[in-house]
Amino acid sequence: MKNRLILFFFFIVKLTIAQVSDFKSIDFTRADNIAKLNANASLKNLPLLAHNLTYKLDNDAEKFRAIYTWVCTNIKGDLNQDNKVSKQRKRFKNDSLAYLKWNNDYQKTAFKKLLKHKKTMCTGYAYLIKELCFLVDIDCKMVNGYGRSTTANVTSLDLANHSWNAVKLNNKWYLCDATWSSGYFVNDVFIKDYNLGYFLTDPTLFAKNHYPLDKKWLLDDTLITSDYSASPIVYGETFTHKIIPIGPSNLNTTIKKNDTLAIRFKSLNTLETKDISLIKYIGIKTIPFKITDLKNENGLVSFNYKFKSKGVYDVHLKIKNDIVATYTVSVIKE
């Protein structure tokens, strides 16, 4: 069994490296600059906007980057819309046909607000990405499913609450989420914070907090043929640092007192061991765990921690100053 786990671990890593290296030869600076030059452009003429964003670029990957960057940096999140839709999702949780009817009617209002005020929710972001791609002959789909966070779909897939995109580049499908790339809310105020971690993201990482209604959009045969299980909670910073948690594979783990918990993850960015830590919180105070056997072998990181007391612990993997994964560990008697 141990050898099988090791083989599976390296199989995941091999797939990840292949995915990330697909566009290493492309410099997206020109595409990003074109998006900046067209900042504040109107949405009243989408064909003109699509043309202005892409006509100077040489390939579909650059064209898609310009579209993606423009949408993420020019469209604001609309919390009122999001709350309204969330309320209706809960209301029609057991009546999908009724929800679809309500949603189809409401989308007309939502899209009008998007075009007029440049404010929207996840469906609007995904819709705009898809429409701009269509206008430049890039195959792009809207994907609906479950977005996982610290407050939604934590341990099970309770409510389909999110939309994102799949885009076909060089005859291969990739995943991205313009909503979560664009920023976040603090006290009902939208904070712009362009996070490229959600751009053409590795499917294994993307599935940590995106689970589609149609499993084919997992874009990974192992994930597609496996049953859903609640993985560790990940955050926007996980995508920024390009961290893929591997073990423990589940959010909730039970071990015996004095047993060792092994943490394993893949870092797609260069990472120094001094920047890796495991912590817990007591109130607002950060308490570091004394981890052992810390190794970083070409981005394959592993370390151990022995729990000496019974209890339930929320433990957080920290890279530099950012929490990138959260696990709940139940320690029982020997």
Tell me about this structure.
The chain folds into two domains: 14-230, C8orf32 fold (Roll); 243-332, Immunoglobulins (Immunoglobulin-like, Sandwich), CATH 2.60.40.10. The protein is α+β, with helices and mostly antiparallel strands and 334 residues long. It has helices at residues 2-21, 29-37, 46-54, 60-74, 79-91, 96-117, 122-135, 178-182, 203-206, 221-225, 236-241; strands at 76-77, 119-120, 140-147, 162-169, 172-176, 183-186, 189-192, 210-212, 233-234, 243-247, 252-256, 260-267, 276-282, 285-288, 292-297, 300-306, 311-319, 322-332. It contains eleven helices and 18 strands. The strands form five sheets. Strands 9, 11, 13, 14, 17 and 18 form a six-stranded mixed sheet that branches. The model is unreliable at 1-18 (pLDDT under 50).
Q: What's a concise summary of this model?
A:
With 334 residues, the chain is α+β, with helices and mostly antiparallel strands. The chain has helices at 2-21, 29-37, 46-54, 60-74, 79-91, 96-117, 122-135, 178-182, 203-206, 221-225, 236-241; strands spanning 76-77, 119-120, 140-147, 162-169, 172-176, 183-186, 189-192, 210-212, 233-234, 243-247, 252-256, 260-267, 276-282, 285-288, 292-297, 300-306, 311-319, 322-332.
